[in-house]
Amino acid sequence: MKRDYSTMLSETWFRLLFRLYPRDFREEMGEAMLQTYRDRLREAMNRRDLSVARLWFAALRDSLRNGPAERLRPAASWRRSGNWGGDAERVVRRVAHTRGRVKRFRRRRTSGLLPGGETRHRNRA
Length: 125
What we know:
Helix content: over 70%
Distance between the termini: 79 Å
């Protein structure tokens, strides 16, 4: 009975702290974060030391630091802005740019312009 009450109290504490985050963040990440908190709480309760208190203070610290920061400057602003077309365009450009760089690097390496190229190995023999 005590364990159930303390679990309920801990979850209420976490839900209260989670209110510091913006609503859309809570809707998207809420269940996953609550499940992670439950798992950490279960581990802390099995240790039977001050682990539960440390977990509460860690949740308080993280919520006070990250909740308002998420409201001021969302880490996933691209997801909330709704500009999926512009984001997809940027991804395609970056992938194309990266492929070009890889091809140029391979050409330089095999032509002997970079260390480890084929011509360098032939000169050693």
